[in-house]
Specification:
Elements: E1 22-25, E2 31-34, E3 38-39, E4 42-43, E5 68-71, E6 77-80, E7 84-85, E8 88-89, E9 125-130, E10 136-142, E11 162-168, E12 174-181, E13 198-204, E14 210-216, E15 222-223, E16 230-234, E17 239-242, E18 251-253, H1 273-276, E19 291-293, E20 299-304, E21 310-312, E22 324-329, E23 334-339, H2 351-360, E24 364-369, E25 375-380, H3 406-419, E26 422-428, E27 431-437, H4 450-462, E28 466-471, E29 477-482, H5 493-501, E30 505-510, E31 516-522, H6 541-575, H7 579-610, H8 615-641, H9 645-651, E32 657-658, E33 661-662, H10 677-685, E34 690-692, E35 701-708, E36 711-717, E37 737-742, H11 752-755, E38 760-761, H12 763-771, E39 781-782, E40 786-787, H13 790-795, H14 799-809, H15 815-825, H16 865-869, H17 875-878, H18 930-934
Helix pairs in contact: 6-7, 7-8, 14-15
């Protein structure tokens, strides 16, 4: 055997390599350098040092030299500039060259002019007018200024049945007081809103108190009332403001109440307020400072508006809770406080106990998540879930609304009491669903009732004080008695934390004097707040007509706001600002709310004309009104005022075209909703980019791809293997997908057949027209015998039924299921798929139990084959964490799916029969079924 030795040759990789030195110019112009060396064929990179060659400190840094000035003999002020050198200012001498002699005195002769008569200006002041030579040429009248009143005398002590009435002189100053008896105490009677053709009639009861009724126009005592704030006074000198021009007996209209100076802070400049309430009297001639000093000594910029008013940027808030940050919007003058994490969710009942008791009472249990991430239990009855998950699959069977009687509704109410939950009626997809749920936490501030404000003003007036504005611990406005100069400069610290605990952002706005004029807790709307209580009293037709007329007024206002915000969006579009997306969505919301108001108005009129007002009609109307107020209006405020990262992402969610399609949505923690219907509902209402799997891992994938013009772009695709095989339907072939351009997205998805499918294009849209719901033929089946899931049982009954199914369903059946039916039709097997009827081992038929899911849902902690092939579908399962599933609670199951082709199985020695989804891999169950995949 010959052995050859191989010689090892070492190669010098740096042979022939020359490394250039590194050099840099130091601050004192010295050029520092260092040598780079070669190692392994690569030159090192050294950094030259400027040590000892730093720039010398500038002795004049921070020194400002004042100019020198002097007054010349002719009164001219000469000046020169001093400069800094070596840390010392020079001393220059101003020159008076050309200004060293005083001007010659020129004798001036003015023509004589007679002074004005004593009554020339009445109560005003005569002011002289001068020409260029300083001669009086005439007089002008200056209106009288507000006279500062002397300190009023002390108020007398009046008996319990009297009050100190103020007497005034001609200048509006208090001269003395007189004890006047207090009039009879009448209850505050609210005025009704009368329909067209009716006017308010004022009458008095036995106690002499006013009562109001709607009577036909022209009737005795009828008056036409204008809905304007009307100040009025009675014979005793009491002065009040009424909500319209219809005054009670004994009251007469006046221009203003003498004590109305208490309205400091109402942005109306009233007599006397120039001295004690400057913020109500911003004059066009008022000088506007360049900057304003805030309480923390920082300074903000100010500017003069076109109307002459002065606008200063918002000052920061002095103290905010830990874990919160403030965001200043300089353009709007708002300061928002964002608390990154809430302290705790509201207390909820024992969810495990509620679930068990709900199911014991034959209810359907589910968990609903609020916008702030807290979970609440729901228990619905009548066989229908209150889930907000819409149905996108055109191959699903159409679900009908349950017919619920008053007795069933009452039984549900009693069940809610047993569960310790609140009874409410939810409207989902046009269905009215009775349910038990935890009552949603009240968010936001309610407007102060007119009667309460009026009573407070009366109480303050009797104390000789004014009504001033303040804020409670929730940040909501309240009124109290105080001095005119008092004003709130911050809200209580608890208000920031309380708003943050609700998942909101407290927005504060101050005027130029630092007084708070607005405090609002901004939070996105929650559809739970549109759930309604049962109707306790059926209204009269006249009341419904009155509401219809109010809806007309509201529609007009919403239309104005829609146009105004659309103009603002157009302006931002012309500047390329992302705020276009913010105001475009707000405009769409006002527009959709206007259309919803139109629907409410028509429902009311139809009910009145029909003459038979049904409770369900009123439930729909009540729900629509609450949806506008509690969901849409909160969404609008959230988009307009919030400075959160969520709103920033929303306003920048634009649909971007890539070829003939829109760009897909990237899966992130912010965009992935999994199978959470509440997450989808909240995001879609604002057209926020998101990914959604309404049926879990086996159903359609839905992408909300952002806003394009006034339409929200949605893309829906069925996964591979779903739907009819290729070539089954002429002109339609996989992949089954569709792109939808939806303009009324701000209302959410109530019914996909009305809100989504009509605005879609693509093969899946064509599939929808053929099979989807009432507008299509429905799922494949045997006419008059079975449809969808029903055919599982029917087709396996015998040879004749198998032949019918082959004739009608043949094109839709995969080879394995078709083979089993052919064998049954030839009499070669005793039952469908080798089984004679339902399997005896389990006692289960092919009908899927209503409590079982057709798919393995996202969020159950199991990374199934679909989730492995599609990492974006449910990242939390494949990361090994089952997020979103409460301890001790089974994962929430998606809707039961009734598919027309559920018989799809892989080929085996014996044809498999379907999926039972009972948690056990039964004999005859297909290997791809979720039960067998898990076992």
């Amino acid at each position: 055997m010959l052995v050859f030795a191989q010689e090892n040759v070492t190669t010098d990789l740096c042979a022939g390599v020359t490394c250039d030195p590194a050099a840099t110019t130091c601050p004192d112009s010295y050029v520092a350098s260092c040598t780079n060396t070669c190692s392994g064929g690569t030159c090192s990179t050294c950094v030259p040092s400027c040590s000892g060659h730093e720039a010398p400190a500038d002795p004049c840094a921070g020194i400002t030299c004042s100019p020198a000035t002097t007054t010349c003999p002719d009164s001219y002020v000469a000046s020169c500039s001093n400069t800094c050198s070596g840390g010392t200012c020079s001393t220059c001498t101003p020159s008076c060259a050309g200004h060293d002699a005083p001007p010659a005195v020129v004798a001036r002769t003015c023509p004589p002019i007679s002074p004005p008569s004593a009554d020339y200006c009445h109560d005003g002041t005569a002011k002289e007018k001068y020409d260029a030579n300083g001669c009086v040429t005439g007089y002008e009248c200056i209106p009288p200024s507000i006279t500062a009143c002397p300190t009023p005398p002390a108020k007398p002590s009046c008996p319990a049945d009297a009050y100190p009435k103020s007497n005034y002189d001609s200048k509006g100053c208090i001269t003395d007081y007189k004890c006047e008896p207090v009039g009879p105490a009448c209850p505050t009677e609210s005025m009704p809103f009368c329909a067209s053709g009716y006017n308010i009639v004022t009458k008095t009861d036995a106690a002499g108190c006013a009562i109001y009724k709607c009577e036909p126009s022209g009737g005795e005592g009828s008056i036409a009332c204008a809905r304007v704030i009307t100040p009025a006074m009675d014979a005793a000198g009491n002065c009040k403001e009424f909500p319209d021009s219809c005054l009670p007996p004994g009251w007469y209209k006046v221009d203003r109440c003498p004590d109305r100076s208490a309205a400091c802070g109402n942005n109306i400049c009233e007599p006397g307020e120039e001295n004690f309430c400057r913020r109500d009297c911003i004059s066009a001639r008022e000088a506007c400072p360049v900057t304003r000093t805030c309480a923390d000594s920082s300074r903000v910029m100010c500017r003069q508006n076109e109307d002459g008013s002065c606008f200063c940027e918002a000052c920061p808030i002095e103290s905010i809770p830990q874990g919160c940050r403030q965001v200043v919007d300089k353009e709007k003058g708002f300061v928002g406080v964002v608390c990154e994490s809430r302290s705790a969710c509201p207390a909820t009942p024992d969810i495990e106990d509620v679930k068990n008791r709900c199911e014991q009472n034959k209810g359907i249990f589910s968990l609903r998540k609020s916008p702030d991430g807290c979970e609440f239990p729901d228990c619905t009855f009548g066989g229908v879930s209150s889930s907000v998950v819409p149905v996108f699959n055109p191959l699903q069977e159409e679900k009908k609304c349950p017919a619920e009687t008053n007795e069933q509704r009452e039984a549900t109410r009693q069940s809610c009491e047993k569960l310790g939950l609140h009874f409410a009626i939810s409207v989902q997809g046009g269905c009215k669903i009775s349910k038990c749920s935890q009552k949603s936490q009240k968010l936001g501030c309610e407007p102060l009732p007119f009667e309460e404000r009026q009573g407070k003003e009366d109480a303050c007036r009797r104390q000789g004080l004014n009504v001033v504005k303040d804020f409670d611990e929730s940040g909501c406005p309240l009124i109290k008695c105080g001095e005119p100069a008092q004003c709130p400069r911050d809200v209580p610290k608890e208000a920031y934390q309380k708003c943050g605990n609700q998942g909101g952002e407290l927005v504060v706005r101050r005027d130029n004097q630092g007084c708070i004029t607005l405090s609002q807790c901004i939070v996105q709307g929650d559809s739970r707040e549109a759930d309604v209580d049962p109707i306790e009293r059926m209204p009269e037709p006249s009341e419904l007509l009155s509401m219809a007329f109010r809806m007309e007024e509201l529609k007009i206002e919403l239309d104005k706001l829609a146009k105004k915000t659309d103009d603002i969006a157009g302006y931002y579009a012309s500047t390329g600002s992302p705020d276009e997306g913010r105001y475009r969505r707000v405009s769409d919301m006002f527009d959709a709310a206007k259309d919803k108001v139109d629907e409410i108005k028509e429902k009311l009129r139809d009910a009145v004309q029909r003459g038979d007002v049904m409770e369900d009609d009123l439930i729909e109307v009540k729900r629509d009104v609450k949806y506008i107020k509690n969901v849409m209006m909160k969404d609008i405020l959230y988009l307009m005022l919030s400075s959160s990262d969520d709103v920033k992402n929303i306003k920048e969610s634009r649909a971007t075209k890539s070829g003939d399609r829109f760009e897909a949505v990237k899966a992130t923690d912010d965009t992935n909703c999994g199978s959470d219907g509440s997450c989808f509902d909240r995001g879609f209402r604002l057209c926020k980019k998101l990914i959604f799997y309404p049926e879990g891992s086996k159903g359609p994938k839905v992408e909300v791809q952002g806003l394009s013009g006034n339409a929200c772009i949605m893309y829906v695709v069925l996964p591979e293997g779903e739907g009819p095989p290729a070539g089954t339907l002429p002109g339609i072939s996989p992949p089954y997908d569709m792109t939808c351009k939806i303009e009324k997205y701000t209302l959410g998805v109530r019914n996909p057949e009305e809100d989504i499918f009509p605005y879609c294009e693509g093969s899946m849209a064509e599939l929808t027209k053929k099979f989807g719901g009432s507008g299509g033929q429905g799922p494949p089946g045997v006419p008059g015998k079975c449809s969808g899931d029903e055919c599982r049982d029917y087709c396996g009954r015998g040879p004749e039924e198998a032949k019918e199914c082959l004739e009608e369903l043949g094109p839709y059946l995969p080879p394995e299921a078709k083979q089993g039916l052919e064998q049954l039709a030839r009499g070669e097997q005793p039952g469908f798929g080798g089984f004679q009827g339902p399997p005896r081992e389990t006692g289960e038929g092919f009908e899927r139990p209503s409590s079982q899911s057709a798919t393995q849902p996202c969020g159950d902690g199991l990374c199934d084959d679909f989730e492995q092939r599609n990492p974006d579908a449910c990242p939390q399962d494949c990361r090994g964490s089952a997020t979103g599933v409460s301890a001790g609670i089974a994962p929430r199951q998606p809707m039961t799916v009734a598919r027309p082709v559920p018989l799809s199985q892989p080929a085996t020695q014996q044809a498999c029969s379907g999926c039972l989804n009972n948690g056990v891999c039964d004999p005859g169950e297909c290997s791809e079924c979720a039960d067998c995949l898990r076992g």
